[in-house]
Amino acid sequence: xxxxxxxxxxxxxxxxxxxxxxxxxxxxxxxxxxxxxxxxxxxxxxxxxxxxxxxxxxxxxxxxxxxxxxxxxxxxxxxxxxxxxxxxxxxxxxxxxxxxxxxxxxxxxxxxxxxxxxxxxxxxxxxxxxxxxxxxxxxxxxxxxxxxxxxxxxxxxxxxxxxxxxxxxxxxxxxxxxxxxxxxxxxxxxxxxxxxxxxxxxxxxxxxxxxxxxxxxxxxxxxxxxxxxxxxxxxxxxxxxxxxxxxxxxxxxxxxxxxxxxxxxxxxxxxxxxxxxxxxxxxxxxxxxxxxxxxxxxxxxxxxxxxxxxxxxxxxxxxxxxxxxxxxxxxxxxxxxxxxxxxxxxxxxxxxxxxxxxxxxxxxxxxxxxxxxxxxxxxxxxxxxxxxxxxxxxxxxxxxxxxxxxxxxxxxxxxxxxxxxxxxxxxxxxxxxxxxxxxxxxxxxxxxxxxxxxxxxxxxxxxxxxxxxxxxxxxxxxxxxxxxxxxxxxxxxxxxxxxxxxxxxxxxxxxxxxxxxxxxxxxxxxxxxxxxxxxxxxxxxxxxxxxxxxxxxxxxxxxxxxxxxxxxxxxxxxxxxxxxxxxxxxxxxxxxxxxxxxxxxxxxxxxxxxxxxxxxxxxxxxxxxxxxxxxxxxxxxxxxxxxxxxxxxxxxxxxxxxxxxxxxxxxxxxxxxxxxxxxxxxxxxxxxxxxxxxxxxxxxxxxxxxxxxxxxx
Length: 713
What we know:
With 713 residues, the chain is α+β, with helices and mostly antiparallel strands. It folds into 4 domains: 42-168, no CATH class; 174-266, no CATH class; 285-633, no CATH class; 645-706, CATH 2.40.50.140. It is 38% helix and 21% strand. The strands form 8 sheets. Strands 4-3-2-1-5 form a 5-stranded antiparallel beta sheet, with no helix packed on it. Strands 8-15-14-11-10 form a 5-stranded mixed beta sheet. A hairpin with a 3-residue loop joins strand 2 (43-52) and strand 3 (56-61). Helix 2 crosses helix 5. It starts with a helix and ends with a helix.
């Protein structure tokens, strides 16, 4: 019937035949009913009350609200509505609902497009409703102005004309409209899922994998995740924005994170850096398969040349939660009184071939990642923590670097050989320190190691070494997915005797390997550090410890690397240095093992200096990410630890440096975290007392205030 009506009335003049009288512009005046844009998303009907200044008008809208509008906000003046009563707007809208049938648009478009006719709003009303009265005209305007498929609005001499779109364009717009309706329905269903999950108690939230089973749901939840960590593409940003808007949240990354936590997709203490830096926390099936094959069958190609050192008393000293044990120590006193030490290093290269699948995987990881909540090893876990690691009381394949020291601590002789050892002790730093204090006769080898470390430290100081030891915090979180997980804080003092012992032996090993590479012309990743332009004695006035270390670090020059010959390491006070003692957890150490092991077999090194430089660069990029991950995660959990402490608790702080005026950097000694605040008095190296005023781990906010002396008293 509508099409018949349209056909019967299509003889009305079109745009090409409209006279000027058909397009007259209506003037706004008191009592008119009009439609105006309230904001970007709403249009309202209103009655004009009076002028407001030279251009604006005061109107009463359909909600009874009085407001001032600009002429640009007016979208349509309803004809025939002089002296309209604003109380009748609701009745007017109710009547309009009966006429607002969108299918009218398609019928009118079919007829008008055939005859290439363009129409005004009133003409459209006459065509489809048979009347140009105010109600019908408004309904025609309403349909046309909100139509995005059949008609396009064009301006002609100040009045609006609607032109039928071409058929091809209508088909495309219909396709898009249907697609949008389908997407809107999907969004509505997804929002319902979110709201349902959000309303559930904590222990009943749907598991994370349930959000990843259906592709459409997976796309939306991953868009929210990408938005939360600020690594989203344009489509993910659009989708996440729509979801947040539908949920009534602000379009911010923090709102997305809060939503994901509230629905149980993320734990409360989720580490966003794992997603932000796209950290690989798992291995492919191919890599795992190769690792399992090696665990089943891995013959030792160096077995015939391994020296049996299983009779030595071997000490493996590390942090108590260490999973990958890759170095251990032995020592003895020679008949001439000199000390001989062995640094035994795990031998993962007996499982690997350069450029193999496992080797490439390790290179692209660069290092094992150690976080308070988890460890992500450089090699598959069973291989790294079992077969490759040193095990107490078990014959273990290793590479042993032996060094005989001069009485002054310098190297007299050294050798590197494949070996078999049987670790006697697996000690924590605390356990080793306790053994040293007990001074047991049967542990004389440990005391010899301590003596060797002492004379080595003295010798390095005589060579200009710089003290950079700091108080280092360690945190282990036992159940990180819980809202209130257990946090265990350990503050390591680098002056701990066992830590100093191990550190000196690792430096000694690095110096010996560098000498070995130099003497035998082996390309290796040699590390160096130029001497500072500031003399070591410049900070002698500062107390030993963190304050002096911070001052020393502040004047250090950039580190250097060479892959053909050693370069002096001014910070350590040694002529050359190669990291060698952690081949299971550091790829550059593994490269050094490949090169040294090939020489020991009488073969050419597998890598040239250029090869080493390229691979070290690749690995170093991933090492930087790992360090960032570690420092960010450690700081987050230190802040979370502080957040849980009783309000008003006093903390002992050490003044490390001044930034400007009395603004200073302090070290909370009992926590191991640095913070900036204003101090009333004191100098670098002095102690102070502070209280925590505010702490927000997620926003990395820590604010402390110094407690005045009289307050403490």
